[in-house]
Task: structure prediction
Amino acid sequence: MKIQSLFTDLIRKSTVTGATGGLGSQLTRAILESGGDVISIDRDEIPPAATWEPLQALAKSLSRTLTYHACNVTSPSQLTSVFETAAAQVPFPLRGLVNCAGVGTVGDSVEYPEDQTKWTLDVNLAGSLYVAQAAAKVVRKQAGGFGASFVFVASMSGYISNKATPTAIYSASKAGVHQLTRSLAGEWGSPSSPSPAIRVNSISPGVIHTPMTKEVLTHKEWTTVWEQEAMLKRISAPEEYRGAVVFLLADASSYVTGTDLRVDGGSTGW
Result:
């Protein structure tokens, strides 16, 4: 198989949740540039123009299809409806999913509020399951028995205790994503008629410069620790995760499942 085919066959149509965020928009851009159509899902009824308009322009220039759908990832019924509707509007079977929707929270665990705890776990962990369920239902209903590749965005915090900041609940939610990845990969990896095989993997980013982390990164005492803990001695940019996700979506990784790819500048490698 040609190298170009390895990186386009499974990317043909993918869904990205959290698609207008700092990381999600870069991953959407990467899929479009790799020859795929993208179903974008995010929480806002109207996508932010500063992010969405450049993506629309890119899709048009590449003759790719890009659609947007507002959805709450903590609502299984809403996700099922949105995925079914969205998949029917875009040509080619759904072959990929990138679940980038997530929240980052910081706080003293002794006084950490109940509503924040539930919100973090609902979005980061339960939301990952709900998104995967909705996507898997679409994949199983499609004619032709095409397989698919799902990618969750976890975190290096699922492996380590953050030295700079108290993030117990956030870290626990991302560790849960690691286990969810392995468990779903085990359940969905064996093709059995009429169900096609679905590969499930995750990536674990380090600290990223995004609008969501802007306030946290104003704390110099925290950023100094993160920079020193990374073997590359710096904080990452969203575009540095494009290659990892495209690889996991594509046929180039056809024998990779149940795996977490750490893209953390070496922070967990010491």
